[in-house]
Amino acid sequence: MLITTLSGSQVPQSPLKLMYRVYKYILPEVENELSKLRAMAERIPDGELRTQALDSLAGKKFHCQGGAVYACANLEQRHILIPLIVALQTISDYLDNLCDRSTSLDPDDFRLLHQSMLDAVDPAAEPKDYYALRKEKDDGGYLRHLVLVCQRNVALLPSYGSVQRVVSELVGLYSDLQVYKHIRKDLRETELLAWWHEHESRYPHLRWNEFAAATGSTLGMFMLFLAASGDGLSASDADSIRRIYFPHVCSLHILLDYLIDQEEDKAGGDLNFCNYYESSSLLVDRIGWIASKAREDVQQLPAPRFHRLVIEGLLALYLSDPKVKTQSDVMRVTRKLMKNSPLTRLFFLINSIWIRKQQA
Question: Helices 27-41 and 142-154 sit at what angle, rounded to 10 degrees?
Answer without folding.
Answer: 140
